[in-house]
């Protein structure tokens, strides 16, 4: 039969051989050999122990046969108990029982429940007594020492092999034993015999005598189990009997024990519990059955119920808290609202719960509390940033600006974030911050970014441009700047070319001037004693008329040279040229220099070469053409006779 809650269909009691697990389900209680009235396991089979919390049988560890979770009382065959734990017996131990090694291999003796040997003395043990030695050793006073030796007259040592002893420097065969010493004293017997007080005795026992595990004949010991004799002592007795120090079986019946073995009580009678030393003590009066201590109840009488703290309480305490008592009267099946089942009793829910199934596990929350995502009722005052009322079941539905909704509660957005989806995903940041990977980053942390707008970089340093997302400044070419640089470079090149041209012109003119100075006389007016006549517009000359051959005859076709000085009174440079009428058949005229530039305050000496071609009278005008440089002024023409 199983009992359920009507509303939740939650199981609260199982049928026999089944127990109620943490999921409120009935699970088969395996390895249990005894169950109490409340359907709880109180005893497990060998190799298992009773878990007090789950009331189920758990397997014992490390080859333990009888024990609990932390301590082993008895180990399985082939294992030895040491400090409450089972350890595999030493391969030098030939027989072990009752957690102890009883017999060791030849050459080893039992010390502290272990087989230890003295390799130096090469001794063979029976029990803890050395009975014989290996070759080249001899038994003296229970210990093996260097084998007896003798010396002859030649100082040679004499040794005898096994089965012989030394007598008068001769090796004599042992009469009965396998190994003997001086005077034929027997120290190791043949296979069918055993050694007793240095005498080899036949292993065939007399009537009513029993051979022990070492081959010795012993008197029959009463109540000894399976004739378990070692060196004349019983090592394991029948139930209710135990071996004493003399190896005899004495009656050790344990009071109130229902099942007993040689190690102690295995199972106690009702209302008694098993102690660590395997004895039976009475349970507390309130307990039907108990475990470990008198007050740790496993079941209660009919008018009481078992609490979670393993104590038995009266059913009268359920008044006012229990809605329905179990049919057998062993506790409450269904509790009132605001209470939960504690074992088979009812305990009050926490103040934050309206209904619960454990003290701190609410099903519904009380006034001023809401059900959190973890199933815990929290105070509504703990929610910060909620927009609107807080629902008992659903918590907060919408959060204020600067908060985001998570698990029915509001949590503040990250640093410098105005609106966000969650702690790590920001939608809008404060001024001067840029959204990068849903985080708010100050623009100063963005390389080359100078200004921001709408959470994006809006201006970058020179030679850098904003990417499409507005999150980075990338290096880029500024075409207009390159054009300006190209133009500046071209201007510089042109200026350099002009300077070169000017310098070349200067050099050429200077060279021409030097060449000119070789053939032309230019002098400073202020430093000359020539008397000049002004022709106007800054042009001066030393003569207005040139007379050729005055009062003298002139040879025909012979060139006559005349000089005239023309100066520039102005500050500006003037280009001066003397020109004559062309196409005259009576004479020809040549002027040197034909044209020249004269600086202000300077004058030039012109040579006029005239060739008369026939007898004639000449009266002509020579034109002086001047033009001021660096001005748009027209040419000025002056004449002389």
From TrEMBL:
Protein name, UniProt field: Cysteine surface protein
Organism domain of life: Eukaryota
TM helices/strands, residue ranges: 477-508
InterPro entries (alphabetical): Furin_repeat, Growth_fac_rcpt_cys_sf, TKL_Ser/Thr_kinase
UniProt entry tagged with the keyword Transmembrane helix: yes
Keywords: Membrane, Transmembrane, Transmembrane helix
């Amino acid at each position: 039969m199983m009992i359920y809650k009507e509303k939740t269909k939650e199981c609260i009691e199982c049928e026999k051989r089944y127990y109620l697990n943490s999921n409120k389900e009935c699970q088969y209680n395996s390895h249990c050999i005894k169950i109490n009235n409340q359907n709880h396991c109180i005893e497990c089979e060998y190799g298992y122990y009773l878990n007090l919390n789950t009331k189920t049988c758990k397997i014992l560890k490390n080859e333990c046969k009888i024990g609990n979770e932390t301590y082993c009382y008895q180990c399985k065959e082939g294992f030895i108990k040491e400090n409450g734990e089972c350890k595999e017996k030493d391969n030098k131990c030939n027989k072990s029982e009752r957690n102890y090694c009883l017999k060791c291999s030849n050459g080893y003796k039992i010390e502290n429940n272990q087989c230890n040997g003295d390799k130096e003395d090469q001794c063979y043990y029976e029990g803890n007594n050395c009975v014989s030695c290996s070759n080249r050793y001899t038994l003296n006073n229970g210990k093996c020492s260097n084998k007896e030796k003798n010396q002859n007259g030649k100082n040679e040592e004499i040794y005898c092999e096994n089965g012989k002893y030394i007598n008068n420097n001769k090796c004599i065969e042992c009469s009965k034993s396998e190994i003997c010493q001086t005077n034929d004293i027997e120290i190791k017997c043949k296979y069918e015999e055993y050694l007793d007080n240095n005498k080899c005795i036949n292993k065939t026992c007399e009537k009513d005598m029993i051979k022990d595990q070492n081959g010795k004949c012993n008197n029959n010991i009463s109540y000894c189990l399976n004739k378990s004799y070692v060196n004349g002592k019983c090592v394991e007795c029948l139930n209710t009997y135990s071996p004493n120090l003399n190896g005899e079986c004495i009656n050790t019946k344990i009071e109130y024990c229902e099942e007993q073995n040689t190690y102690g009580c295995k199972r106690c009678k009702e209302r008694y519990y098993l102690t660590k030393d395997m004895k039976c003590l009475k349970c507390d009066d309130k307990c039907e059955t108990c475990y470990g201590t008198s007050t740790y109840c496993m079941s209660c009488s009919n008018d009481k119920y078992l609490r979670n703290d393993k104590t038995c309480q009266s059913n009268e305490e359920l008044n006012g808290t229990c809605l329905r008592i179990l049919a057998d009267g062993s506790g409450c099946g269904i509790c009132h609202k605001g209470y939960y089942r504690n074992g088979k009793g009812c305990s009050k829910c926490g103040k934050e719960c309206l209904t619960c199934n454990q003290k701190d596990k609410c099903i519904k929350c009380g006034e001023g509390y809401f059900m959190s995502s973890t199933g815990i009722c929290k105070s509504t005052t703990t929610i910060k940033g909620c927009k609107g009322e807080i629902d008992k079941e659903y918590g907060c539905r919408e959060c204020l600006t600067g908060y985001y909704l998570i698990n029915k509660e509001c949590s503040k957005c990250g640093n410098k974030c105005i609106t966000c989806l969650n702690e790590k995903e920001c939608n809008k940041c404060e001024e001067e911050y840029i959204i990068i990977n849903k985080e708010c980053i100050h623009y100063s942390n963005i390389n080359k970014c100078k200004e921001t707008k709408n959470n994006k970089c809006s201006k970058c340093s020179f030679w850098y441009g904003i990417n499409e997302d507005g999150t980075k400044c990338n290096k880029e070419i500024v075409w207009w700047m390159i054009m300006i640089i190209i133009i500046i470079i071209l201007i510089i090149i042109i200026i350099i070319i002009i300077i070169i041209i000017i310098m070349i012109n200067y050099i050429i003119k200077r060279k021409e001037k030097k060449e000119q100075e070789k053939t032309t006389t230019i002098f400073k007016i202020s430093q000359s004693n020539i008397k000049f006549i002004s022709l106007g517009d800054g042009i001066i000359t030393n003569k207005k008329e040139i007379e050729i051959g005055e009062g003298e005859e002139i040879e025909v076709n012979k060139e006559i040279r005349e000089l005239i000085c023309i100066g520039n009174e102005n500050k500006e440079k003037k280009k001066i040229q003397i020109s004559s009428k062309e196409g005259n058949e009576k004479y020809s005229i040549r002027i040197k220099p034909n044209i020249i530039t004269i600086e202000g305050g300077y004058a030039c000496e012109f040579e006029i070469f005239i060739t008369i071609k026939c007898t004639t009278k000449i009266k002509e005008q020579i034109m002086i053409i001047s033009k001021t440089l660096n001005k748009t002024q027209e040419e000025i023409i002056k004449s002389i006779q």
